[in-house]
Amino acid sequence: MQLSKFTDYAFRVLMYVSRHQDELHTIAGLAEKLNVSQNHLVKVVHFMAKQHWLITMRGKGGGIKVSAAALAMPVGEVIRTLQGNPQLVSCDAPVCILKSGCRLKSLLDEALEQFYQSLNRYTIAQCVGSAQPIELIPIKQQPM
């Protein structure tokens, strides 16, 4: 399974703001630090705020912080939410003629569930690791 860019960017934001909990972050600042398009981050941050993973404050002196609930979230559940529960294979579009006697879809569904359960052994806080701020490595912006 390949994670979407949306999921990738969401984890970058979660991990960065988790490591820098004493600061308020702006989308523009995060975009620059994480080398991600500001337009993409607006969507990602908005989604995560709706999930109550991020706390957003408007106006002068406002910004973005990670919520305590997000730090305790299991990684597998975060990925499942961000990915939108994708299917690894579809037997219906187009309809597969082998559908009635095939077990591949159920095996892949089981494997995907095991993937999520394996990741659920860890929390977002555990992904961040030490309390030291993340040192960013400057890289050249890639065109989208």
Write out key terms for the chains shown:
two-stranded antiparallel ribbon, mainly alpha, 144 residues, single chain
Report on the structure:
The protein is mostly helical. It is built from 7 helices and 2 strands. A two-stranded antiparallel sheet has the order 1-2. A hairpin with a 5-residue loop joins strand 1 and strand 2. Helix 2 crosses helix 3. The chain is elongated, with a radius of gyration of 18 Å.
Helix fraction, binned, reads 40-55%
User: How much of the residues is beta strand, in percent?
Assistant: 5-15%
Average of pLDDT: 87
How can the largest sheet be summarized? 2 strands, antiparallel
Number of helices: 7
Please report the total strand number as a whole number: 2
Distance N to C terminus: 22 Å
Structural class: mainly alpha
Q: Categorize the overall geometry.
A: elongated
Based on CA atoms alone, the radius of gyration comes out at 18 Å
Q: What is the N-to-C order of secondary-structure elements (H for helix, E for strand)?
A: HHHEEHHHH
Low-confidence stretches: none
Strand adjacency order, main sheet: 1-2
What topology emerges from the helices and strands here?
Elements: H1 5-19, H2 27-34, H3 38-50, E1 54-57, E2 63-66, H4 68-71, H5 75-83, H6 104-119, H7 124-128
Antiparallel strand pairs: 1-2
Helix pairs in contact: 1-3, 2-3, 5-6
